[in-house]
């Protein structure tokens, strides 16, 4: 009996399980200097520079990705955008929804 007819299904099943575990988002140069503060009121003494919207794949086919990994990737993407905005601090404006999240960017002088 040949297993050849089952090979595409096995490969597809493997990819559906293995790929979502990979981290696709890497920290850009300069992004490590951008600090993340918790959601809440705007930080005192900081200048709001704008908002950052980021998104990642939160599911692959029928597989939902790990919620913590999605949050980490969204935060990394937002930190990557911070220097382009001139921000040294970012703050989430809400919870992630369907793989997307908004952040406020501030210049606080990295206190």
UniProtKB/TrEMBL annotation:
Keywords assigned: Signal
Keyword Signal assigned: yes
Signal peptide: 1-27
The protein's name: DUF4156 domain-containing protein
UniProt source species: Marilutibacter alkalisoli
């Amino acid at each position: 009996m040949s297993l050849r007819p089952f090979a595409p299904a096995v490969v597809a099943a493997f990819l559906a399980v293995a790929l979502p575990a990979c981290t696709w988002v890497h920290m850009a140069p300069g992004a490590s200097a951008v600090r993340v503060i918790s959601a809440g009121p705007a930080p005192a003494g900081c200048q709001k520079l704008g908002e950052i919207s980021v998104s990642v794949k939160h599911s692959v086919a029928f597989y939902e990705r790990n919620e913590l990994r999605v949050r980490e990737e969204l935060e990394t993407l937002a930190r990557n955008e911070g220097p382009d905005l001139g921000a040294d601090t970012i703050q989430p404006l809400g919870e992630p929804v369907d793989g997307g999240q908004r952040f406020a960017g501030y210049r606080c002088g990295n206190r």
